[in-house]
């Protein structure tokens, strides 16, 4: 009797330990996101200090195109929603629907990146590169840092799509997808700060 | 957190409602902010406070409806960490702006 009790409790402990492990991973990733937020905040602070230091170069009003920033914003916002729909499909174990929504999310992310790269290329071609003024250095650092995050998010998305096709919805794949969804939604939240405090406050 | 977090997330993940509501509210704040700037008739100070408040509200909408963070017991540590980070961000950004603008006005 005692063996059954101990073995069942051992099994329970293993199960429990397993759950705790995944729990710790998600919480650990949340801690990473919060430290990333602090990193972003230092770039925001730098931008706030340097945002009027044009050094005789072009300012926010001449450089920023508000309608195209609006399109970028909507691309990222819709991609957040489609990722949410992908997670719903995941919970329904619907692989086809999940992959469809992930492809849409990835394309929206790529659309956002394409517009941003285009914007940067135009600015640099006009002689408004990061070396032109303190304002532009801070701008390229902050917005470029966010764009780099979206780039890695999109890469991660592609890797996860391959894993879903090759491995299916295993426990590992599922727990990675939960973390990727946190990352993706987090980037959208940071973008709210970017379009408000960099673009919109720049042009008023 | 996770087993509980995942369960909570799964429960809210399994309906589209949360995302639709979040999307509607976020779009409302985004449109409001851009309209505010495009109209171009608003005094600068009013615009600054209006845009800041809209941004903070939109971030809260994202946290609530996309990240599914709420005041349930399971998510207490996530929320605690987020609030602590928000305090840090406020000190870093607010402190930097305060110090640098004060320095700037003294140098004038």
Question: In short, what is this structure?
Answer:
Chain A has 204 residues and is an all-alpha fold.
What is the topological layout?
The complex is a heterodimer of chains A (204) and B (108).
Chain A: H1 2-50, H2 60-63, H3 66-91, H4 95-125, H5 134-167, H6 171-203
Chain B: H1 2-13, H2 17-39, H3 44-65, H4 76-107
Helix pairs in contact in B: 2-3
Describe the structure.
The complex is a heterodimer of chains A (204) and B (108). In chain A, 87% of the residues lie in helices and 0% in strands. The radius of gyration of chain A is 22 Å and the shape is elongated. By secondary structure, chain A is mainly alpha-helical. Chain A has one domain: Four Helix Bundle (Hemerythrin (Met), subunit A) (Up-down Bundle), CATH 1.20.120.80. The longest helix of chain A has 49 residues, at 2-50. Chain B has 108 residues and is mainly alpha-helical. Chain B has one domain (2-107). Helix content of chain B is 82%, strand content 0%. Chain B is built from four helices and no strands. Chain B has helices spanning 2-13, 17-39, 44-65, 76-107. In chain B, helix 2 runs antiparallel to helix 3 (44-65). At the A-B interface, helix 1, helix 3 and helix 6 of A face helix 1, helix 2, helix 3 and helix 4 of B.
CATH architecture of chain A: Up-down Bundle
Structural class of the helices, strands and pairings of chain A?
A: mainly alpha
* Principal-axes shape call of chain B: flat
Mean pLDDT across residues of chain A: 91
Radius of gyration of chain A, in angstroms, nearest whole number = 22 Å
Multimeric state of these chains? heterodimer
How many beta strands in the DSSP annotation of chain B?
A: 0
The span between the termini of chain B is: 53 Å
Unreliable residue runs of chain A: 1-14
Counting helices, strands and paired strands, the structural category of chain B is mainly alpha
Helix content of chain B: over 70%
CATH topology of chain A: Four Helix Bundle (Hemerythrin (Met), subunit A)
> Treating each run of at least 4 consecutive H or I residues as one helix, how many helices of chain A?
6
Classify the beta-strand content of chain B into a percent band: under 5%
Greatest contact between two chains: A-B, 50 and 53 residues
Helix content of chain A: over 70%
Average pLDDT of chain B works out at 87
